[in-house]
């Protein structure tokens, strides 16, 4: 399985826009560094705890952003 970075990043930005928040504010809510948005956009590998924080913040199932090969 691989991570669908584009889908994840798009949903992150949509959530921020809907809530009128900055990337810094969103990252703070998740307990992550604001660089998380750049990491996802750049297709960087994520640690499991980071991925879990992201999907929890987005209120999605853990498998929602995974692509089966």
Walk me through this protein's architecture:
There is one protein chain. The chain has 69 residues and is mostly helical. It has four helices and two strands. A two-stranded antiparallel ribbon has the order 1-2.
Produce a short descriptive summary.
This protein has 69 residues and is mainly alpha-helical.
Q: What proportion of the residues form beta strands (DSSP E)? A: 5-15%
The radius of gyration is 11 Å
Count of folded domains: 1
Shape label:
globular
Number of helices: 4
Give the CATH superfamily. Answer: lambda repressor-like DNA-binding domains
**How much helical structure, as a percent, in the residues?**
55-70%
Number of strands: 2
List keywords for this structure.
single chain, 69 residues, mainly alpha, 434 Repressor (Amino-terminal Domain), two-stranded antiparallel sheet, 2 strands, 58% helix
How would the blueprint of this fold be written?
Elements (H helix, E strand, L loop, with lengths): L1 E2 L1 H15 L3 H8 L5 H6 L6 H11 L7 E2 L2
Antiparallel strand pairs: 1-2
